[in-house]
Amino acid sequence: MGDRRGSLGVVTHPSPGGPRDRLGRPMHDLRISVMDRCNFRCPYCMPKETFHDRYRFLRTSERLGFNEIVRVARAGVELGVRKVRLTGGEPLLRPRLAELVGELSLIEGIEDIALTTNGVLLAQHAAELKANGLCRVTVSLDSLDPDVFAGMSGGFGGLEDVLHGIEAALEAGLGPVKVNTVVRRGSNDHTVLPLLERFRGSPVIVRLIEYMDVGNRNAWRPEEVVPSAELLQRIAARWPVTPLPGSYHGEVAKRYRYEDGAGEIGFISSVSAPFCGDCTRARLSSEGVFYTCLFATAGTDLRGVLRGGASDDELAGLLRTAWTGRADRYSEQREALRRGEQPLQKIEMHYIGG
Ligand SMILES: C[S@@+](CC[C@H](N)C(=O)[O-])C[C@H]1O[C@@H](n2cnc3c(N)ncnc32)[C@H](O)[C@@H]1O
Ligand code: SF4
Q: Which of 5, 57, 133, 157 gets the highest tally of CB atoms within 10 A of its CB?
């Protein structure tokens, strides 16, 4: 897209050796939830019994505007952020999302801008997103069986639209496209092999995600988690695989390559093999709360501060305080925390940003 830096007047200077949290973790990734609404009702994320027609989502004015998001991202870059991921809810429901991508792409120091989407609206937007500086896209797709897909998405959205979205992303040059598949025992685990088969030998990398106890609404039960080790066994019995070395510090997926050369798959095992020790991710919710953990119960409100006229230094100071005070490692403490007397009031995933 050429050098567009300067048209916004945004030039930040990355600070090597940014702050570390109380467990020595640097801040490297910023996940931004740009939209709390979604056009799916995946029962493991936004069950329709709770997120029904009368559910009160944020009003437009309650969501951070693009300028506010960009200011937080710039402050993050000062503290070490190099990767930004736009997510939600469904980020493609946010009007003019490509403009935000364009603005973020002007921030010096951001090396990677990615998007996680359910893919239904992707075909319409892929080319413009790419032209504005989006680097990569991850599409969530839990099954190729139409009935199972409908069950996993709450009956909304079309499988064919998602597949078109993946094709469009590849055509737009947003590859390698990753596909995220949440695996839930008894729901879609029997359709994992056909899904892998479909994408073997293509530029699409499937990542199998253990079903997690995000938020409080999905009635998570440990029995429904299919541990990655079990899935790996099932897969290797069909297509032998070899582990790949990690490509960078903080990589969440454990990667394997098919020995017959048909590509690779990843496993995200935050239940059976938590990776909190390497967690370099900060999160910004759609209404401007800064969180340091996907399973957080509280965060730092930035919207009030942004709208109250805070300077860039004050904003960066708030992020620094939140990050350096961080000691959370929920997934490593899951069992003990779940045994606690008071259930944790975790922030819902569509809101904090998956
Ligand atoms: C919350 S979604 C937001 C972006 C977009 N709507 C999508 O589905 O890709 C981000 C990712 O979180 C995953 N996710 C949601 N709930 C989950 C859960 N309970 N366990 C594991 N992954 C989950 C989704 O499958 C998706 O890949
Ligand atoms: S996982 Fe994504 S698509 Fe499904 S309900 Fe949550 S936000 Fe929507």
A: 157
Q: What is the 8-class DSSP label of residue 51?
A: S
Dist CA 256 CA 240 (whole Å) = 10
If DSSP codes are grouped into helix, strand and coil, which group holds residue 278? helix
Q: Residues with Cβ within 6 A of ligand 1?
A: 38, 44-45, 87-88, 90, 116-118, 140, 180, 182, 209, 211-212, 214, 218, 349-350, 354
> Of the bound ligands, which one is closest to the alpha carbon of residue 91?
1
Cα four-point dihedral sign 181, 186, 189, 194: negative
CA dihedral 187, 190, 195, 196 (to 10 degrees): 130
User: Of all protein residues, whose CA lies closest to atom 26 belonging to ligand 1?
Assistant: 140
Phi, psi of 310, deg, nearest 5: -60, 150
Give the mean model confidence (pLDDT) for residues 253-275: 93
Q: What is the pLDDT, as a whole number, of residue 15?
A: 45
- Cβ atoms of 192 and 208 closer than 8 Å: yes
- Asked if pLDDT for residue 205 goes beyond 90, the answer is yes
Ligand 2 in reach of 42 Cβ (< 6 A): yes
**Mean pLDDT, rounded, for 276-295:** 91
What pLDDT, in 10s, does the model give residues 117-138? 999 999 999 999 999 999 999 9
pTM of the model: 0.92
**Predicted pLDDT at 332:** 74
Contact assessment for residue 99 and residue 35, using Cβ atoms and an 8 Å cutoff: no
Pocket test for ligand 2, best of 90, 156, 347 (most atoms within 8 A of CB): 90
Res 274: pLDDT? 80
**Cβ of 46 less than 6 Å from ligand 2:** yes
What tokens does 74 get?
Answer: 């710039």
H-type helices in the chain, by residue range? 66-79, 97-104, 122-131, 146-153, 159-172, 192-199, 228-238, 303-307, 312-324, 330-339, 349-352
> How many residues are there in the chain?
354
- Encoding tokens for residue 188? 């879609």
Given a cut of 50, is residue 87 above it in pLDDT? yes
